[in-house]
């Protein structure tokens, strides 16, 4: 009873600030510790303790979403194992929470864990979603992120991106002799690893939608050229034959094709190929620079950057290169466009005067909005929910790092990296 | 354009401190002629690779040309420098050179690579039009990866929009 009272008091204290911070009040989600049928010691700790950790991670994940207000395990009622699937709704109804996340952590005879989570609608007293995963004890965190995705998707109708990866370039050394390494980490900052050793300058890592391959630009061959690395085997090879300069890679949403820019005969144009580099096809042929292509989520259109008009602007064309039309008329220069996963917006880098900022525009060219006021913010990448953008932020001293901004604007939040970071990309999904 | 470089360098000198090194490099002061008794030049020292690059710089005025704004056009000063570079390359036909194009950091990453290549191509094409065999030249775009001057002042941006002729071993 004491615990319940503390829980209510906390809700009362926090609700008004949330309600005034946005149009709709946040949905209150109770995330008590997951139960365990039997407390068993595993490599990652006792199953009861892992149940607590999983609830902590879900709470932390959901807290980054303005539509949701998670109440974590430290303030929630502890329930017995049978209530994971059949909660005592009358107990939860008094708390003010509308949604309840329960679950359990169970040790299996093969040494792995079953981690299950259930999402319940408290007023309706019914289960609305469930997820179950069999993982090694070391992988409990990924199961937790996938529970978060299930809760988020159920409550907002949009795909979650808690179980996802961020690829970026880790930077060290002096400005004119930068050491750059392709790096990948889980979006919560864990499982950080370097994919290249730093001998060659590398740029713009782009993950395939299933998260098992990564395309990037390397100067290793004497020219900036695309390479493709398999994340499971670490096999790393040139994407294309020949020695032409190729750069600006982006996979299609289904992972079967890759767009990029290539310079042949002194002219940079947009090309498409199968994701393994075969079946190369040129899509643009104007005398200007055409670069930075990005598919629409249905793969039928492509947005790209061109200076054919005399300055860099955004253009949309059909996937076969036909019907090329300019969409940016805001009086600035525009670059690095990327289509949102829901298809509704295109994010870009806007260059005006001496500043680079992040903005969004509709695919038809209406509704341009600038989201950041940075000195040098560039290279946006969408979260799977199409609500947030990850980008490279440089402060006035030239120090670069990763930041996230909402499509509704507001203050960007920094994403911590071990060193300076640039060229970030948010993968569409988690690692295999 | 050379005048602009010197002005920029002078301005950097005026700032003092850490900027003077960069400024001294930009002035590209030719090495003093080594003169023996009665004004007869001494026989040249054994030529090192570094000596060759210095010799090209001394005879051409600079190994680097600069670009106005976001374009890749060669103005009169750049053309004068490149005309002299072409003479040097024609006189040293065994030397291969790589034209390295650069962008300032106000271009997003991908466009910087493309415009750096445009600038390198513009220089290469000019040198070829002056008679330098195309086989003697290669190009490379560094995009915005190798700024010569730190910071994003107008001057730093102008000095980073450049193409350099680099002799290759």
Explain the overall architecture:
Chain A has helices at 2-21, 47-63, 89-93, 140-156, and strands at 27-30, 41-42, 45-46, 68-71, 99-107, 113-121, 126-135, 165-172, 179-186, 193-194, 202-207, 213-218, 225-230, 236-238, 245-251, 257-264, 267-274, 281-282, 290-295, 301-306, 313-318, 325-326, 333-339, 346-352, 355-361, 369-370, 376-382, 388-394, 400-406, 409-415, 420-426. Chain A is mainly beta and 432 residues long. Chain B is of the alpha+beta class and 169 residues long. Chain B is built from 6 helices and 4 strands, in the order αααβαβαβαβ. In chain B, strand 2, helix 5 and strand 3 (137-141) form a beta-alpha-beta unit. In chain B, helix 1 (2-15) packs antiparallel against helix 2 (19-27), helix 3 packs across helix 4 and helix 4 (76-91) packs across helix 5 (109-129). Mean pLDDT of chain B is 82; it is low at 1-31.
Q: Please report the number of helical segments of chain B.
A: 6
Compute the CA-based radius of gyration of chain B: 17 Å
For the report, how would you describe the main beta sheet of chain B?
4 strands, mixed
Q: In percent terms, what proportion of residues of chain A is strand?
A: 35-45%
List the helices and strands and how they pair.
The complex is a heterodimer of chains A (432) and B (169).
Chain A: H1 2-21, E1 27-30, E2 41-42, E3 45-46, H2 47-63, E4 68-71, H3 89-93, E5 99-107, E6 113-121, E7 126-135, H4 140-156, E8 165-172, E9 179-186, E10 193-194, E11 202-207, E12 213-218, E13 225-230, E14 236-238, E15 245-251, E16 257-264, E17 267-274, E18 281-282, E19 290-295, E20 301-306, E21 313-318, E22 325-326, E23 333-339, E24 346-352, E25 355-361, E26 369-370, E27 376-382, E28 388-394, E29 400-406, E30 409-415, E31 420-426
Parallel strand pairs in A: 1-4, 1-5
Antiparallel strand pairs in A: 2-3, 5-6, 6-7, 8-9, 8-31, 9-10, 11-12, 12-13, 13-14, 15-16, 16-17, 17-18, 19-20, 20-21, 21-22, 23-24, 24-25, 25-26, 27-28, 28-29, 29-30
Helix pairs in contact in A: 2-4
Chain B: H1 2-15, H2 19-27, H3 49-60, E1 64-66, H4 76-91, E2 96-101, H5 109-129, E3 137-141, H6 154-160, E4 162-168
Helix pairs in contact in B: 1-2, 3-4, 4-5
